[in-house]
Amino acid sequence: MDAYALLLAATLNAGTVLAIAALGLLINEKAGIVNLGAEGIMLCAAIAGFATVVNTGNDWAGFAAGMAAGAVLAAIFGWLVIWLNTNQYATGLALSLFGVGFSAFVGIGYVQSKLPERPQFNWLGLGDIPVIGPALFRHHPLVYGAMLLAAGLIWFLYRTRGGLVLRSVGESPQSAHALGYNVRRIRLLAVVVGGALCGLAGAYLSVIYTPLWVEGMVAGKGWIALALTTFATWRPARVLLGAYLFGGVTMLQFHLQGQGVQVPSQFLTMLPYLATIVVLALISRNPTWIRVNMPASLGKPFHSGG
What we know:
Elements: H1 2-30, H2 38-56, H3 59-83, H4 88-106, H5 132-136, H6 141-159, H7 161-171, H8 173-178, H9 183-209, H10 221-231, H11 236-258, H12 265-269, H13 271-283, H14 287-293
Helix pairs in contact: 1-6, 1-9, 1-10, 1-11, 2-3, 2-4, 2-9, 2-10, 3-4, 3-9, 6-7, 6-11, 10-11, 10-13, 11-13
C-alpha cells in the first residue's frame, strides 16, 4: 500500500507540470492562437527559475522569474503572429528551437549547481495519516494550486463576461471586432498569460520536481501539454484529468522498474509519448467531435478589415 501511495503522490507531482502548462496553452487556444513554442518557453523558464533560486535561495522568486521569462517570450511570439501575421505554426516551432538552444547556452554554468535544502510539507498534520497522508497531503502548494487554477479557469471561461469575450474572440474574431472589442489586444493578453503559465510550469520542473538543471530537461513535456488540449477537447477539467493520466504513465515506468518487472527500460521510458500518440490517434477517429469543441478560428490570422 505504501508503494501505491508513493505512486499516487508522484503522479500528482508529475501531472502538475503538465497541468499548469496545458492550462496556459488552453487560454491561448481559446483566443484562437496556437503556440507550438511551449517546449522552448518551458526550457527558458526552467533555467531562469533555477538560476534565480541558486542566487537568491527563494523558490517563489524563482517561480516569478520563470513566469516573467515565459511572458516575455510569449509576448514576442504574440507580436509576430498577431500584429505581423506571421504563420503561427512556423513561428511557434522557431520559438521552440530558440528556447532549446538559448537555455542550453545560458545554463552551461548551472549544470553542477545545487539548490538550498528543499522544504518538506505536512498540511495540518494530515500527512501522517497512513497511506492517504503521503499520497495527498505532503505536496508543494503549487500541486494544489494547479487544481485551483483549473477550477478558476472553468469559472472564468463559463461564468464571467471576460471569459465570454475570450471565447468569442476564438470563435468569431470578426464578430467580436464588430461589437467593439480589440481582438488583437485580447489575443496578445491571452498569449502572455498562457506563456506565463508555461513559464511557471518550467520553473516548477527545475526547482521542485527535479531540483537541478540539465540541458533539455523538459524532455517533450511541452509537446505533451500541447497534445493535452486536444485530448481534453479544450475543457479545463479534462485537461487536469489528462495531465494526471499522463503523469501516472510517466511514473509507472519507475514503479514497474522498482517492482522488478522485466521490461526493457527503453520501452518504459517511451510510455508517456506512446500514450500521447495512441490517445491522439483514437480522438482523431472522430473529426466531428473535435470540430464541435475546437475554437472555430484556431490558428487563423485576424485582419481587422476582413
